[in-house]
Amino acid sequence: QAIRALQEIVDAGCVVLPQGSNTGLTGGSVPRNDNGDSRPVVVMSLKRLQTHFPIDDGKRVVCLAGTGISTLASSIQEWFPDRESHSILGSTFLNPTTAAGVAFGSGGTLVRKGPARTDRALYCKVYKNKFGEHIVSVVNTLGIEGLEEENFQEGAGNGVDTLDSYCMDVKQGYRRPMMKSSHSKHGQAKASDTEYSRLVCECSKEVSRFNADTKGEDCNRSEGKVVILATVHDTFPVPSEKRVFFLSFPDFETCLDFRRKVILDNPEDLPISCEYLDRDSIDIIDRAGRISTFLIRFLGMGDIMSTLWNVKNQIEGLPFSWAPMFCDKFLHAFNNFVPCAIPSKFMTPGKDWDHHCLVAVGEFGNGTLPRFMERLDKFVKQYNDKALGDGTKVVSVVEAESESDVTALNAFRFVAALAFKTYCVGEDIQGISVDYSLPKNGGGAPPM
After folding, report:
1. What local confidence, expressed as pLDDT, does residue 177 receive?
2. Which of 153, 168, 258, 416 has the fewest C-beta atoms under 10 angstroms from its C-beta?
3. Non-local CB neighbours of 407 within 8 Å, separated by 6+ positions
4. Sign, Cα dihedral of 250, 251, 253, 256
5. Neighbours of 430 (CB within 10 A)
6. How many angstroms separate the CA atoms of 173 and 177, rounded?
7. Strand (E) positions, 163-254?
């Protein structure tokens, strides 16, 4: 149906806009007409393509384009408790899709896994033939036994129809033999960024990830230039132990030094994730994101939050002049009636220091956690001994001691994009949020 719909859209001379969960926080799924293109825009929702299933004894998973990453995480936890999925977007609580993760290279904080990418996918491209007609071409690099085009004789089925049939059985609860990767080049292709851990530790003037990094299959960082229908992703081992720290630094240079000496020391001992937050981020989330943070903490991530987000979108779409800003005005006005969203042991250094890192570290069976802690303790001791002698600010390290602490910190950072919009609307100011990459051997904020 999706392929036929795409052909109808291009035959009508329209712009195709693939849409996942329509969170809108990245702007990628929102129709815009700021480039002078006069063609009609057709939004092609892929939200109904939600089926997902494991292959290769749980080492990988196949996701149709509408599979939510929060839904996928829950499914893998149920199927294989010792494995976990990849993607974590800043809007995870809204259950964005795995296809969006690939199309936008999500997972910026995931130091160990790297950004979301895969060379194993089913997607559509549009090209012009010699008669000027727009033709939809289906590219199948899934690399799954029984789904590759060479498995079928001409006129006797194809991989798309077979995948459709398998997914329909899975959706209806029928048990089918677990599929396996083929021995073809596609079956042996990458289903995650396996080189990232090595590249990110190479201290050079290069950046590790950037928006124009389109290496691999065309589905990676495609941003709507192709229509992704299904993808294959690696799953990852769950750490046997996990610790989370909120670190605060007196200046940006010390933060960068921590990145080089502790975070990126070697590919084997990389932390699970590391996210930088400056003082402005802390202040804005605290001033405009308390309600959203508490909703995530107590309602969880996934369907309920997605429903509330849809209600917000519907209110903002009402035909009244006040409607587009009503929800953000409300969240901003009542924000301070809600207690601080994270415990004071985190918020106090968050307000007293200007640069912060939220770091999660895990033990993966070969001493990764003790070695990381040794580097961390050495760095903090050396710096703080010098700082105390100079009478300057020390590095603050606060550990999340409970699951509640971890949930609060995660929710706090998840709402950053939402809180920024709420803050700008509530304060009646213009604002722009900019993501930028720094070289691995240094860097600073770019001039605006």
Report:
1. 87
2. 153
3. 297
4. positive
5. 6
6. 13
7. 227-234, 236-237, 241-249
Residue identified by tokens 């990245």 is 26
Cβ-contact 61, 73 below 8 angstroms: no
CA-to-CA separations, 210 to 18, 198, 207, 436, in angstroms, rounded: 22, 16, 7, 8
| Residue of 358, 102, 364, 99 lying closest to 236 (CA atoms) | 364
Beta strands (DSSP E) in 250-402 are: 273-278, 355-363, 396-399
User: Which residue type does 323 have?
Assistant: A
DSSP 3-state of 179: strand
Element (H, E) at 55: strand 52-55
The structure's pTM equals 0.87
pLDDT given for residue 122 in this prediction: 93
* Cα diameter, the chain: 80
Question: Which residue matches tokens 């003082």?
Answer: 279
Low-confidence residues of the chain: pLDDT under 70 = 24-36, 87-93, 152-157, 211, 301-302
Note the pLDDT of residue 296.
86
Q: How far is CA 385 from CA 181, 252, 389, 392, in A?
A: 54, 19, 6, 10
The per-residue pLDDT for range 371-415, each reduced to its tens digit, is: 999 999 999 999 999 888 887 889 999 999 999 999 999 889 888
Q: Contact 232/61 with Cβ under 8 angstroms?
A: yes
Residue 421, pLDDT score:
92
pLDDT at 24: 65
Contact 231, 101 (CB under 8 A): no
Cα separation, 178 vs 299, whole angstroms = 33
**Locus of tokens 């977007």:** 89
Contact 1, 76 (CB under 8 A): no
Given a contact cutoff of 8 angstroms between Cβ atoms, the answer to whether 204 and 441 are in contact is yes
**What's the CA gap between 260 and 375, in Å, rounded?**
11
DSSP 205: S
End-to-end CA distance of the chain: 46
Q: What is the pLDDT of residues 282-314, one digit of tens each?
A: 999 999 999 999 988 888 766 777 788 888 888
Task: Decide if 25 contacts 418 (C-beta within 8 A).
Answer: yes
Burial of residue 286 (number of CB atoms within 10 Å: 0-12, 13-18, 19+): buried
Length in residues, the chain: 448
244: enclosing H helix or E strand: strand 241-249
